[in-house]
Amino acid sequence: VNQLFLIVTISGRDVALQASEVQSVIELETVTDAPRTPDFIRGLSALRSRPLTVIDCAKSLELDTPIVTPEGIAETAVVVEYNGHLYALHVDGVKDVTQADSNPNAIPVELKGGWERVALGMVEASEGGFLLIDVGSLIEGPPAVKAA
Amino acid sequence: MLVVIRLVGGDVFGVAVDRVLDHEELVVKPLAPAVMKAGFYVGTTQLDDGSPLLMLDISGVAREAGLISEVQHRTVTVDDSKTDKEAARAISVLLFYGLDGVRRAMPMSAVNRVDKVDTSVIRLAGEKSQVVIDERIVPIAGADLGPLPEGRVSMFRLGDGQGEMGYAFQQMIDIASIDAELSTESAGGDLAGIALIDGEPVEVVDSHALFARCMKDAPGDLRPVARMPGKDRWFQEFLRPMVEAAGYRVVDESDESEADIAIASRGGSDEENRSLPAAQAIWLRATRDAANKKDDSIYRYDRDGLMAALQAARAGRNR
Lengths: 148, 319
Fold this sequence. Notes:
heterodimer; A: mainly beta; five-stranded mixed sheet; B: alpha/beta
């Protein structure tokens, strides 16, 4: 069965999100800092009258490369709902919406860092294979680091 | 600049701020769990321009600063892995004076927050007293222990995670920690037992018993109840809308709830009237003029007279 996927770029890597999980793609405007929260939480924003928790996808994945917004476009985030709360996943940008078989294939290589934690498999689209990302794991962030 | 804050338990401390901008009533919305976990926020709201604003959890800030230790928290679960035996047996309570002036202790775990409410939203009916909280009618305890003060009364908002109820009291005294093992000889009713605090006996409220007693009834109706003949079409079709407009819930003889007032025709049979039990009665007569001076009935199309009688009965009920 074919299904729609949203192709987004996180720290330079193109990955797939299930389109059914995505509510909208927005330009990030005011983001209010939320001090003392985990690093991967960039802060708070709002979509219409609902609060949005802004997730820095690069930090959630513990990547060395930060999210980079290409010149000429605004900061982009993908809005998803998870456990009753709205989240804005801050990404480099959104590439495309594509169709692919809904059953992801096994991942042929060993993934590095946080990718291993969030990857559900590979989806094969006409544009090529993309890592399918579990939105929940992205939102949960890295496992809590024990306070030193 | 300092903002001086008094917490629920009475702790007073200051928060240094750069500037005070405004004070506003806010609609506070829930935060994502990862943000809540910080322990510094209770929710978020939006300013007029749409920008989000975090609402600080002052007791969380105070706890982090080491200013309070025993104030429990509703939103943050503190992992207390090093609880020793002694601490496990102690429970935190709020000490207060009940409306009857008796010193009591309320287990903190049952208290969601402390509020002041207008006494007009409390309907006194002994053990079935009710209060309006956030446009809902919930049971209230403690309100019948003594006279309600003029204007506003302090109230605990108690919750068991599902239901909510109120508990009216006179004055908050302090937060205390008591030994969970109470002297239970006098336990019963809403009383879990007696604890010793600073050498004085204090009644400890049994929150389980409170909820068990008050939650068994479905949320009721604060409106006063008027009982009138159910089969009489004039009463049901002519009079009922007016009585309902006057703020009454209308029942007939088949309903078992206690009525505040009965409305019936003067001259109806005794049997008919006995079937309309109520605290007071309004009698209606078919003729414009009263039969004699003793007749306290109201002509049934005397709208002003009827309305006045309905309102008087309502006012009398709240006394």
